[in-house]
Amino acid sequence: MDITDTAFTDEYDVIILGTGLKESILSALLQQKSMKVLNIDRNRYYGGEAASLQLDTLYKKFKNTTPPKSLGDQRYWAVDLCPKFLMASGQLTTLLRVTRAILYMDMSLIPGSYIANSKTIYKVPATAGEATTSTLLGLLERFRFKSMLEFINEFDPAKKYKESTLTARQFFKNYDLSVDAIEFCGHALALHTDDSYLDRNCVETILNIKLYANSLARWGSSPFIYPQWGLGTMSEAFSRLCAINGGLQMLEKKVAGISYNDDGKVNGVVLDEGEQGKITIKAKRVLADPTFIHECKPERVKQTGAIIHSIVFMQTPVPNTKNSSAVQLVIPASQLGRKNDIYVACVNHTYAVCAEGWYIATISTTQEKPGVDPDVELAHAYKLLGGKFADKFTWVTPYFEPIKPESDDCLYVSESQDPTTHFELATKQLLEMYKDITGDDFDFNQPIPEGENM
User: Fold this and answer.
1) pLDDT (tens digit per residue) in 234-283
2) 225 falls within a domain
C-alpha cells in the first residue's frame, strides 16, 4: 500500500484544506499536538495566497502564456503573491523560532521602511535619533516626537498611566503632532490600515508602535525581515515540519465537498479522483481556507470586500530610497482621498527571488471602486515606483470571513489574507483557530535549543 492509499483509508483527527500560511502553520502545530493531520491543496505549489511562484507558473496562472526570454532562467525567480514582511519581534517570528521551522529557512533584513507623503517617498523615523533629523517633521516637532517615542519605549501595559484612558487622537494631541506626523505614526509605525484607530483607546496604538520599535532594536537598522527565496518558503517549512512529525500532504487534488454525519457534524472530505470517482477521506474535524468553503458550503462564509493585487517587474530601484535593495512602502489613504492604505513590498535579486538586475514590487489594497479598472486605484503607487515596468500582473480576489454556525459542526474556516505588509493579524487569527480546535492557548514558552535562537 503506497502513501496515497494510506491517506484514503486512514481516519484523521483533522483534514486541512489549503496550504496557505495559516493552514500550513496550523498543520504543524496540530501535528505537534499529537493530532493526526492530512493537508490537501488544489494547487501544485504550497502557499495559497502567500505563495511564491516560479515564472512559468506565474505566467500560466495570470496570462496563460510562457515567460519572455528577457527575464532569464526561471529558476532564479520566486514571485510573491502578497506584499508582506515579518516583524523581527512579532508573533510569527516567535512561532518560527519556537517550532524550529526557522531551521528550514534563511532570513534576511529589509533595509528600511518608507511612507509616501506629498507625492514623494520618505524614510520612516522610528528612533529618537532619526526623529531629530527627519525631514518629515518640523524642527520643533522633532523634539516633541522624540519625547513621545521615549514615553512609548518605557510604556508598560501592566502599569496605570493617565494616558491609558485617552484615544489615540487625544494621545497625539498631547504631543502637538502635525497631521503628517500623526499619519506616519498611525500608518507606518503602528501599521493601522485606516484612520478608525484614532477614536479607539490609545494603548492599542502604543503597543503597535512599541512592537515596531522592539523589532527595529533587534537588528538595529530595520524592523522587518524576509525569507530568502520568497514568502512561500514559510508554508513549505511548516508543511515539512508537519510531515516530519507524521502528517501528510496531498497536492493537486480536487475537493468535491465535505461529508457530514447524521448529527450535522463533519466526518470527512470528498475528493474527485477523476476516473476513479469520488472518494471520502474520514476525519473528526475539517479546517479550510475560505475559497474551498465558498465552493463547497457557501453559507459558511461571507464576502466583505475584495483585495486588489499587482506585481510589477522593474530594472530600477524604488525612487528616493537610496537605491535600497528592498523597501516596505505605505501609501496612506488620506494622500489619495481613499479610505484604505496601499501597501508595497519591493525586493531585488539579493533575496533570491529574481534574476540579477531585477526588482519585484508587489502591491495590495482594499478595493474601493468595484467595476472600475483596478489599475486606476493603484495608479499613484505605480507612479511612485517610477512607472517603468517590464511586465505587470493585476488581479482582484474576494475577501471572505467565516460565519460561525449556531452549534459546533467541527468545521473551522480561516479568513482571507489581509492586504497589509506584515503577518501580525494573520498570526493572531491562526492562534485563535488553534485555541478553538484544541481548547488551549499555544505555548510560546517552550525552550529553544542554544544556537537556534534567531
Assistant:
1) 999 999 999 999 999 999 999 999 999 999 999 999 999 988 899 999 99
2) no
Q: How far apart are CA 422 and CA 404, in angstroms?
A: 26
My answer on whether 395 and 334 are in the same domain is: yes
> Exposed (0-12), middle (13-18) or buried (19+): which is 413, by Cβ within 10 Å?
buried
- 255 and 388 assigned to the same domain: no
Count up the domains in the chain and report the number.
3
Q: Which residues of 128-146 are buried (b: 16+ CB within 10 A; e: fewer)?
A: bebbeebebbeeebbebbb
In the structure grid, which three cell numbers stand for residue 242, read together?
508537519
Question: Do 429 and 283 fall within a single domain?
Answer: yes
In angstroms and rounded to an integer, the radius of gyration of the C-alpha atoms of the chain is 23
pLDDT for 200-222, tens place per residue? 999 999 999 999 989 988 887 78
The overall longest dimension of the chain from CA atoms, in Å, is 75
CA dist., res. 185 & res. 170, Å (int): 14
| 331 contacts 342 by C-beta, under 8 angstroms | yes
424 contacts 87 by C-beta, under 8 angstroms: yes
Q: How many residues does this entry show for the chain?
A: 454
Domain that holds residue 337: 53-111+305-399
Return the SS3 of 37. Answer: strand
- CB contact at 8 A, 8 and 36: no
Query: SS3 helix, strand, coil % of the chain, rounded to 5?
Result: 40, 25, 35
Domain harbouring 317, CATH code: 3.30.519.10
Nearest Cα neighbor of 239 from 45, 93, 61 is: 45
Question: pTM value?
Answer: 0.92
Exposed/middle/buried for 169, CB within 10 Å: 0-12, 13-18, 19+? middle
Residue 364 near residue 309, CB atoms below 8 Å: yes
124 φ/ψ angles, rounded to the nearest 5 degrees = -80, 120
Instruction: State the Cα–Cα distance between residues 419 and 361, nearest whole angstrom.
Output: 14
Choose one of 218, 248, 271: the last residue of a domain. Answer: 218
Displacement of CA 56 from its chain's centroid (Å): 24
Q: What percent of the chain is predicted at pLDDT more than 70?
A: 96
